Amino acid sequence: IPFGETDNPLSLLALLNSTLFEFRFSAASTTNHINAYELDIIYLPWPKADIEHDRRRLLELEAHKLYQRCLSEGHTCVIEFSRHHLSLGESDVVHDLLAFLAEQMIDLNKRKQAEVQRFLGWLEGRLAIIPKNGATGIDSLTGKTILQSYLGDYQKGEPARPWADFYYRLHQNRRRFHASLEEVKGEIEREYEASLAVLLPIKLQLASTDTLIDKIVYQLYGLTDAEIEIIECPQYEQALADAKQQVLGDKELTDDDARADALAEKTLVARQRLQERVNLAVDEAALAEALSGVEWLTDEARTFLVGAEYDLRTRPAQLDFSATVVAYAKAVEQMLGKRLFERFRTESGATAGDCKNKFLQEFMDDKRHLTLGSMSIIVQSSKETALRAYADRVYVQADATIFGDEGVAGLLADKANIELRNRAAHDTVLTRDDALQARAWALAILERL
């Protein structure tokens, strides 16, 4: 490998771990191993080492500062820096940047592993776990993998495990502890939340840096938007298919609302990844043409809607469009929650005592998240006079646009679309026409909001 004395071989590590190289080796190899001959037959853009040393070091420092900026402002400043120096033929600068990003990934992973080991070690000591069949500590417990992976893998789109779920796994093993689990529950919960407070920013930075490496590698090879889409699309399609199988296989999801919500959440990361790496200007334009005032959408609702538009434009008709149907429903849930229910809670002056529905009462006390199903019941109820009075103040003709048969309430009650969302949460294949029906329904509600 032709590295010069001033070059950092960690840039090779960044290249080989990028999505581009994963795509290349997956297409040409039947194993997980990379052989030396495979590196011989592909083009590796090595640095030219033709930049004056002092200037190169100054540019390296500038790139480090831009990286710190991009963590809060987005990747644009680093991507423009990389594009500029590639246009000047200064690939050395870009290789230095990739090496630095590889170092960041190594450091972040070390910090993540250290905190996970610290917390799990503390937990083992606090619970005084009884060994079993030669295994000790958490390794001896039922559901050990779930406990050990409590942070969730960002590469698989896994969220951090909620405390209630983590504690449930501990409770399953309660007879394996010398300590009383009930007595130390509060202490463990505080330590658990403190560990996640350390780990979640690290996880976010890992995901961001991983994405940035992919974008720079695509630049280094001069890939077009269409070529990037070819590389990213299979992973996206697989993520949608895997998400539905995971939901269908989860026995703890007992109702259609919960299954649909889980499917939406599991596909959200895949849609965010697609939005970060693939040019979706066509789909953003299609959404803007179909829905006036898209600037008021939340980031997640926009991601669901743009991703769903992409599905309709690009996915073959024979594929399952369940995730697309659920994406439109999730966008409606988010925006109805934000535009009506959250504003009612914070602006109306009403309290839980002014509400009749139990779920709405718990929502007002910040004890419950309202699902689309519960919102539908609430807006159709004539008993929620406080909510209706508030809506009359903030919406023109709320009786018609929000609570009427042709308004939000009527659309939410539409049996055909309820059935469509329920089918998306089951082992059935939804068609492109089903997704188009969900789109028309969602846009109609969003326009009224």
Structure, described:
- The chain has 449 residues and is mostly helical.
- Helices cover 69% and strands 0% of the residues.
- Helix 1 crosses helix 6 (91-127) and helix 4 runs antiparallel to helix 5 (76-87).
- The mean pLDDT is 92.
The major pleated sheet works out as: none
Query: Whole-number radius of gyration?
Result: 26 Å
User: Which regions have little confidence, pLDDT < 50, spanning 5+ residues?
Assistant: none
Strand content: under 5%
The share of residues in helices is 55-70%
Topology:
Layout: H1 10-16, H2 19-28, H3 36-40, H4 53-73, H5 76-87, H6 91-127, H7 144-148, H8 163-172, H9 181-220, H10 225-249, H11 256-277, H12 281-290, H13 299-314, H14 322-347, H15 358-364, H16 372-380, H17 385-394, H18 398-401, H19 408-412, H20 415-424, H21 432-448
Helix pairs in contact: 1-6, 4-5, 4-6, 5-9, 6-9, 8-9, 10-11, 11-13, 11-14, 12-13, 13-14, 14-20, 14-21
What are the defining features of this structure?
mainly alpha; 449 residues
What's this entry about, in short?
By secondary structure, the chain is mostly helical.
